[in-house]
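# step 3/5: fold
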Amino acid sequence: MSGREKKLPREARQRTGSIHEIRHLTLEEVDLEAEYEVLQTICEVWTGKIMLVEHRATRHEVILKALHKDATSKSDFLREFHYSVFLSPHRSILTAYDVAFRADDFYVYAAEYAPFGDLACYVSNGGIGERNTKLLAPQLASALDFMHSKGLVHRNVRLDNILVFKSDLSRVKLADFDQTRPVGWRARRAEEWPPYTPPEVQTEPKGRSYTVATAHDTWQLAVVLFVCLTGALPWQRADASDARYAAFAQWRGYRALRAPQRFGEFSLRLQGLFRRLFDPRPRRRAAVTEVTRHLAHRWMARGASAAGAAELDPADATSVCYSTWSVHSCPREKNAVLGQLRALGLETVVDRDAKRLAGSLAEDDSQ
């Protein structure tokens, strides 16, 4: 990394100062291509891009999150960077390095690389199973509880913002703090993704403000757990216009005896937990830590997997294959493409040491 970065303490160091006092930094202009070699553009959208890079001087690999100046104000960038740095000492929150700069038309900061992508890569139509869901649930609950203890709300808990550091899901980290705000903040209703939006926000007209509360994260965590256990979203939007949500609301209010589709796959204990996590009244909604109290109990009813597979329509609009988006492609799609490339005799794995050696030899030949 650069000279500025070498002076920094280790990445998990204790930060000083107040988490609610956003630092107003003077961002140095950096020639990104001169200092870093871009190994892969992981994601690129109109607001910016995420790149895996290697620092040319130290050969250290990091992620750079680059946000377009036209799409992100400097104050919003500094807020995201500030929260990312101050929260990163937690084991289950992505480590952000205390380095930010300007590069051409971008504001940029550095974070650690997640070698196994995001959680969306792992969820298929059948979910990831009870065991794996129970591995990641306490990690996410702990990360969110840590944020809530600091008076902050993530507001964007979903599959592609949960990064994987061990392929067996025993180590995941919460990422992406661009929507993070203090408890009590008046946020403006915008283009929140409906399947993850709690009813108290969903019912507000776009452009109107609402009060940020920790119950927002509880709702989104419950959606993530539901998707991990079933491979499908519980509904497309949490209001009466959605038939699946309307059926859930009736069942939750004990106005219907039969559990809605897929909720019937859960044990009675887990059904009770989801009733509390999906309470439409934010002040009565359970805290995220409620999840950890149920880890010792069975979550899926016996024979639920077979029943769920029989019910699932291949074109089900609530299937994660049709209703989630990840910055990484589906592993099945990746393998299909890689198989075709190998059949053509094309290289599909990059040996970075060999690549650097070849580059050095090419430079020597040109001199």
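# step 4/5: annotate
The longest strand covers residues 36-45.
# step 5/5: archive (pending)
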